Amino acid sequence: MNESTSEIRSQVSDAEWLQRVDLAACYRLVAMFGWDDLIFTHISARLPGPQHHFLINPYGLTFSEITASSLVKVDLDGRKVVDSPYDVNPAGFIIHSAVHAAREDAQCVLHVHSVNGVAVSAQQDGVLPLSQHSIFVLSSLAYHDYEGVALEEDEKPRLVRDLGDKRFLMLRNHGLLTVGRSVAEAFVAMYFFETTCMIQVRAMSGGQALRRISQHIVDGAPTQWELVTRGAGGGLAWPALLRKLDRADPGYRD
To answer: Which of 93, 140, 158, 237 has the fewest CB atoms nearer than 10 Å to its CB?
Structure first.
């Protein structure tokens, strides 16, 4: 443990440190899976306790550089509440703060500009029921129309209205967003979202007529989602992903 890590670790609770480690891991995994867009998207996580405090990336670091100790603690307006040598991008917190404020279950909000996700977000019909992955997305999917770069406070109520109680939000002509009861859940949801989009792009490029999954199968997907993922990622996939990351890129724990 280096000096900077030790200093931060001594200042925070065990619960906050665990959230920091999970969120740093999430950033590294997004980079590992190729969903990052230089430094230009964000993943935020709510901290335990009565205050509305959140962790977000230090603006200017790539996702593959982010560590548990470098994450910045901010309030609901994106302002630093603990001194940090790193800058934050309050404008980048617009979408995240809107969702966190509206949804008590939004412990983690994950937003990416993945190539496949943006491609499908530009298609008129959005996500199609073409794969097993897609049924889980379609069972809890909302859309929000593009209003330009998300810099304006007055977009928040429309975004919150469009998201409603859904887990997946497709930002038209922009990208993908997932909401999770934990960092693990938000990441696993994004894996299904981006994979759904990748399969759709490839299927549509094949030149054959597409076979769509029936609506009654989609309707049964929520129950299957919880069973298959064991709590949407926390039980099985997330520990396995952390082991994978520890073998390849363990620096996120610093």
So the answer is: 158
Work out the end-to-end distance of the chain between its first and last CA atoms, rounded to an integer number of angstroms.
6
| List of residues 6+ apart from 247 with CB closer than 8 A | none
DSSP per position, 123-164: STT-S-S-SHHHHHHHTTEEEE---SSS--GGGHHHHHHHHT
Contact 138/221 with Cβ under 8 angstroms?
Answer: yes
Provide the whole-model pTM.
Answer: 0.94
Q: Which residue spans within 19-130 are E strands per DSSP?
A: 43-46, 54-56, 72-74, 108-112
Position 107 scores a pLDDT of 96
Strand 141-144, strand 168-171: pairing: parallel
Residue 232 and residue 226 in contact, taking contact as beta carbons nearer than 8 Å: yes
Residue 7 pLDDT:
83
Whether 50 contacts 17, CB under 8 Å: no
Q: Under CATH, domain 3-253 is a member of which superfamily? A: Class II aldolase/adducin N-terminal domain (3.40.225.10)
- Rounded Cα distance between 237 and 29, Å, is 12
Splitting the chain (254 residues) into consecutive groups of 10 residues, what average pLDDT does each group show? 71 94 98 96 94 94 97 93 87 90 96 98 98 96 93 91 98 97 95 98 96 94 77 77 96 96
**Domains of the chain: which residue ranges?**
3-253
